[in-house]
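quick one before i forget lol
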Amino acid sequence: MARGLGAQTLNYEDIDSVSETVIEMTGGRGPDACIDAVGLEAHGEGVEYLYDRTKQALMLETDRPIALRQAITACRNGGTISVIGVYVGLVDKFPLGAIMNRGLTIRSGQCHVHRYMRPLLKRIENGEIDPRVVITHQLPLSDAPRAYEMFLKKQDNCEKVVLKPAA
């Protein structure tokens, strides 16, 4: 979906290092801003990922901050890290020194729905935004369990489902 909207996309399974690849793509500088939209369910490869999975299994860590660490490592000095992925508790091996020494700004939080709802609806009404671009499936409400499974297991390119009540 992101690629279809003009974004450059990377698959961590196809490259050696997300951080190094992103830095290379930006001529050695790193992006101005990085977003961790994954949170505690992040996937990855290598020792760092196995470390997080092991800590979770032993109940010594609640979240897998691998995407957050990659964002911090990749972002340019003075850049901004936005954390919209959901975290619920404790993370280990958090590079606070890199944040401090490189002057990174961290912004986080869940969406303030009440703050943005009216302005966004107005933009939709005015034709400035077409939310249909993110909808990949429209199903009857009775198919909600199947729709959730499809989304959870990343089947049929499922990104956003609209459930329609019975007529």
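fyi Strands lie at 33-36, 80-83, 105-108, 137-140, 161-164.
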